[in-house]
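Entry:
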Amino acid sequence: MMRHVTGVGATVLLLVAALYHPGVATAHGTASGEEDPCMRRVGERLVHFSAYQPQYELKDQYCTDIPKKGGTFLVVDLVDQELRSEPVGMRIVKGTNEAEGEIVADVRPSYHPDGVLRGEVRLDEGLYTVIIASEKQNLMRRPQYLLRVQMTDYQKIVRSAVGPLIGLLLFAWLAYKLVRSKWLQSWRAGIPQ
């Protein structure tokens, strides 16, 4: 009986820890460096992309999922010093194929000694591709970002619901085992009515 109580106690402790610290249970952490989904390579060099919509949220920055349509500031940080000494440009295309899509904005390649390539564009609902181009790099190796503007990402919704759902199922299973346990039934039988 003591072994059963210890097992139940350990399970409850794990459940409380998983619910109190969901980041540990879902194995999701903050991305930095090359694990950052907004970071891309231009040959051997790195660029970082951010999108801003200050008319909706003043400080929020986005990488691939833009929450609302409208005016959007696009910023590419040229992380490596070498990219600052060569012409770098940016093209925004509606759709996922540069050859077939409509060009929404085109920032011609120029020098950026401050390391920041900026552009402003009005984005409607849908998919867009942002292409970063350097004149010295192979055109097949250009970094691209797929933007989803005001679209529901069902995969993200499912991923965010999995942790709490597993916790709820584990709690229900634990409650069922506890209610059906002989220890609880014998304890309840000993209580005077």
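Residues 33-151 form a domain with the Immunoglobulin-like fold (CATH 2.60.40.1930).
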